[in-house]
From TrEMBL:
Residues 329-565 form the Xaa-Pro dipeptidyl-peptidase C-terminal domain. The lineage of its organism: Bacteria, Bacillati, Actinomycetota, Actinomycetes, Kitasatosporales. GO terms for molecular function: hydrolase activity. This is CocE/NonD family hydrolase. Keywords: Hydrolase. InterPro entries: AB_hydrolase_fold, CocE/Ser_esterase, Galactose-bd-like_sf, Xaa-Pro-like_dom, Xaa-Pro_dipept_C, Xaa-Pro_dipeptidyl-ppase/CocE. It comes from the Bacteria. It comes from Kitasatospora saccharophila.
Length: 581
């Protein structure tokens, strides 16, 4: 029996049906709250489902939106602006997925692929909501990040009453969400454990898929094998997770699965969405390249009506989440209310271009024709459109030595920069970095960040690339110029002292270098604890550093043409045009 009451939000009165029990086909009941305007008039419904707890989402009614770096920013308050949803004439249904919050059942593994698939549950939720007397049978979904991922899983099941979804900032390929170029990212830990700016999952009955799948003896063997990685063994939190996994089941599963393959692919929403025909609007902001990448990949496989909107830097929206609501309500007015507002007459792809701060449109990604062109690493820390002509005996390598962060807080790096650009130069798309590197260990991280440096030295991140050296193998069949593809299905140790070519994928971006600005490429094997970009991210948004001392030599001579390969739009300048040396 639900609890039907009213509450005040500012000057508005909102009716709320608390603790609705939504039946699943296997007899489990999920918990949900439904917020709407007073009265029994049937309305379209927008469903928000997550593992973060529906009671946390209710803070959207009482907590002013926070932007990073506010310490009050909580990455899990993501269901949307409840008061506005109600004001726009919808029922806002906020629920807990199974095994979390007030819901029954057990969740086994991320996206519940080892238990009941979340997409199947979401199908049942959509159809139950559509049948309620307070819903007019038209259902959409709402929410950012985890909530966005749930929308894709629901749409892939094609529930008859799900008329459209609006996905903002979702994460899809979960291997790529957690291992960037094979380098572990800590942000999923924060979402699952609840630390560093995230309340985390509202655990009630969640289990590790690894613990369910393996005998204790076999699991102990696999844990010791994972701890043989010096990067993992040097990080206290990971040692603790691997030795005591019971309260960190999801994070334990992710740490234990450091290679891509069936464990991730069977739960990959991009794979599940290949036959989706539900109308999908995809929105993502620049600054976190792997999520931009996932939205583009998803856009390319969707079969039904679709939109892709890539917004401006910086990367973190407010919490409680309030952005993008204007566009979302236009989308839902068209698909759920039948309002012909022209949104489907607009171009399918919209991209905000940093620098000029203009929006460009097109029918596909990239929205303009591009030609990939190189910028070569040269002596004296220069980037140039012309390759190096001297051999290694004269163009000696650049380099840096990085001690483990267990003994130093200093992150070393080496950088190269162009001369100032003379004319506006636009870049839109993916890129690559071909780096010839010699290391004295079996492995390292290569973290490359590409900056737009203004006169006076102010910098804004354009894009980044990550590659664990042992994951350097390329899939030749899927690799194209400026768009390399690494399978990440095995790790191959590096021969110390050997010069290897490493091809880093640079995440999609869109920017115009204005006159007087430079491109700066900055290479390290760890990340600064704080800088102009990381200050905008939650405290745990870093990558696992290398747990051994490594000397890096970056060769960039005639025989080793280390270079960036960047996507210059052909409508403007097809080649880079920095001032002459």
């Amino acid at each position: 029996m639900s609890d039907h009451r009213t509450l005040r939000a500012g000057e508005e009165t909102i009716a709320v049906r608390k603790d609705l029990r939504v039946p699943m086909r296997d007899g489990v009941h999920l918990a949900a709250d439904a917020y709407h305007a007073p009265g029994d008039t049937p309305r379209p419904a927008l469903i928000a489902m997550s593992a973060y707890g529906k009671e946390l989402q209710a803070l959207a009614l009482t907590t002013p939106p926070q932007r990073r770096p506010s310490p009050m920013w909580d990455g899990c308050i993501e269901a949307g602006d409840i008061a506005r949803v109600v004001r726009e004439g919808y029922v806002h249904v906020i629920g807990d997925v199974r095994g979390t919050g007030d819901s029954e059942g057990t969740m086994i593994g991320n996206y519940n692929a080892g238990g009941v698939p979340q997409g199947r549950d979401l199908y049942d939720v959509v159809e139950w909501v559509a049948a309620q007397p307070w819903c007019d049978g038209n259902v959409g979904m709402i929410g950012i990040s985890y909530f966005g991922s749930m929308q894709v899983l629901a749409a892939a099941e094609r529930p008859p009453h799900l008329k459209a979804v609006f996905v903002s900032g979702g994460h899809f390929d979960f291997y790529e969400t957690t291992y960037h170029g094979g380098v572990m990212w800590f942000m999923p830990r924060a979402a699952r454990e609840g630390r560093g700016g995230d309340s985390g999952i509202a655990h009630t009955d969640v289990k590790s898929r690894m613990i369910e799948q393996y005998s204790p003896e076999e699991l102990n063997r696999l844990v010791e094998q994972r701890l043989a990685d010096p990067d993992v063994a040097a990080w206290p939190n990971l040692v603790h997770v691997l030795k005591y996994p019971k309260n960190r089941e999801f994070w334990f599963d992710i740490v234990m699965n450091h290679l891509d393959g069936p464990w991730y692919e069977e739960r990959n929403p991009v794979n599940l969405a290949a036959n989706t025909d539900v109308p999908v609007y995809l929105q993502i902001d620049q600054g976190r390249g792997w999520t931009v990448d996932g939205h583009i990949e998803l856009f390319d496989v969707l079969k039904g009506p679709k939109k892709l909107d890539i917004g401006s830097y910086p990367p973190m929206q407010s919490r409680p989440w309030i952005e993008e609501h204007d566009t979302m309500f236009r989308w839902y007015a068209y698909w759920l209310k039948g309002v012909d507002n022209g949104i489907m007459d607009e171009p399918a792809v919209r991209v905000f271009v940093e620098g000029t701060r203009e929006t460009v449109t097109g029918a596909q990604w990239p929205p303009k024709p591009v030609a990939h062109a190189p910028l070569y690493l040269r002596p004296r820390h220069k980037l140039s459109a012309e390759p190096e002509r001297m051999g290694g005996e004269h163009a000696a390598p650049d380099g840096f030595y990085q001690a483990p962060l267990t003994v130093t807080d200093t992150v070393q790096s080496v950088s190269w920069r162009t001369e100032p650009f003379e004319a506006p130069t636009e870049l839109i798309g993916t890129g690559a970095a071909h780096l010839y590197v010699e290391i004295d260990q079996e492995d390292t991280n290569l973290i490359l960040r590409i900056w737009d440096e203004a006169p006076g030295g102010a910098r804004q991140l354009l894009t980044s690339g990550y590659l664990k050296a042992s994951h350097r193998e390329l899939d030749a069949a899927r690799t194209t110029e400026g768009n390399p593809y690494h399978p990440h299905t095995r790790a191959v140790p590096v021969e110390p002292g050997a010069i290897e070519e490493y091809v880093l994928r640079l995440y999609p971006f869109a920017a115009t270098l204005l006159p007087g600005h430079r491109i700066v490429a900055e290479l390290s094997n760890a990340e600064p604890l704080a800088d102009a970009h990381n200050a905008l991210l939650p405290p745990d948004a870093f990558h696992l550093p290398v747990g051994r001392p490594v000397t890096h030599k970056i060769h960039r001579d005639a025989a080793h043409p280390s270079r960036l390969v960047l996507p210059f739009t052909t409508a403007g300048a097809a080649q880079p045009h920095p001032a002459a040396h």
